[in-house]
Amino acid sequence: MSDIKKVVLAYSGGLDTSIIIPWLKENYDNCEVIAVSGNVGQADELEGLEEKAKKTGASKLYIEDLTDEYVDDFIIPCMKAGAIYEDYLLGTSHARPCIAKRLVEIAIAEGADAICHGCTGKGNDQVRFELTIKHFAPNMKIIAPWRIWDIKSRDEEIDYAEAHNVPLKINRETNYSKDKNLWHLSHEGLDLEDTGNEPLYNKPGFLEMSVSPEQAPDEPTYITLTFEKGVPVALDDEAMSAKDIIYKLNKVGGANGIGLLDIVENRLVGMKCRGVYETPGGTILYRAHEYLETICLDKMTAHKKQELGITYAELVYNGQWYTPLREALQAFVDKTQETVTGKVRLKLYKGNIIKAGVWSDNSLYSEEIATFGESDYDQKDSAGFINLYGLPIKVQAMVDAKNKK
To answer: How far apart are CA 401 and CA 405, in angstroms?
Structure first.
């Protein structure tokens, strides 16, 4: 371990990474620890972070604003792809490669010997961080304390923190494992580990981005989203960046109880894990985009896109953002989005997103053709179509009947 003189640490200021700084210095000959916090919209979690990092032994702290890159290069591509993993909108999954990319850039600039992360050996994030590091710096050493140290639980982590005078914002009773960014907030652990327990949505302090549907207003809220080639460009006819749209949708969606998800998901490492997610703005954005696609995409393209969206989501969930297949799928997705331009109106009411209108100059829906009233559609044409479409069935029946004789 004496060859490790300088370590760049992915630092959030949470329980794991707070105790990792003194642990690294204890176990790697008092090595220099450079903390890096990627700002992906976790807001107040960044307050006081520099003082805390240096107090626990870091030589410096980088706080990198990655919010624009995170939205434009990770969130929006996933949304355009309709990438959903088992109902989960990938809030942690697509943040990790964004953060890890910057970790590598700083590690190289600082001449670091290793990169360290606080992910457990049970989770998906270890894979997401390390595959990104391997992509950008294939020879960089990676330190994952959870796979090395003797600490076995979060209670033991708190014991270590208390013994080393590491300040914590949590206690043993409210120690949910959380991950927050501008897209979502996840909750894991404690009572949620028992799948028989209902999430405490109405308990003060449990939800941070949303209210429960019961606590949402009794009157609905209408919103209008405008898209250009699959990218959100305006909210209620006010032009703004995709990032600002997400922030505003988080507020209006959260106030109406939108985007709560209680899921038992299949982790990459093989186990099932329960989590509760708050994704108010993201849920609205996905639903609006999907609604617009129903009139802008032809049937075969839409169906194939849905099919490939599952593959895309699995790649992102499994940490394979920087792979040829993900990039190839993105090229397909971007091609499909060339006609996805228009407006969507939605009604938000007590946790529900209700369709309230969709318009596009590229709409493939024709009221004149689809109407139950009089139209130019010649219904006699369907007889020949059915004869040809059903020909294989008819031939098979004839053969079956002949062989039975």
So the answer is: 7
Q: Is 191 exposed, middle or buried (0-12, 13-18, 19+ CB in 10 A)?
A: exposed
The verdict on whether 125 is a catalytic residue reads yes
**Torsion angle, CA of 183/185/186/192, rounded to 10 degrees?**
-140
What's the confidence (pLDDT) of residue 196?
98
For 7, 52, 320, the CA distances from 166, given in Å and listed in that order, are 19, 8, 34
- The β-bridge partners of 10 are 36
Which residue(s) pair with 60 in the sheet? Answer: 34
Give the pLDDT score at 154.
80
Calculate ∠ Cα 197-199-204, nearest 5°: 130
Whole-prediction pTM value?
A: 0.94
Predicted confidence at residue 126, as pLDDT, reads 97
3 is catalytic: no
Q: Which of 177, 186, 210, 360 is catalytic?
A: 177
Residues 6+ apart with CB under 8 A from 23: 145, 149, 160
The yes-or-no answer on residue 12 being catalytic is: no
Strand order in the sheet with 342-349: 238-239, 231-235, 221-228, 342-349, 352-359
The yes-or-no answer on residue 96 being catalytic is: yes
Residues (pLDDT < 50) of the chain are none
> What pLDDT score does 177 carry?
85
Q: What confidence score (pLDDT) does residue 167 get?
A: 80
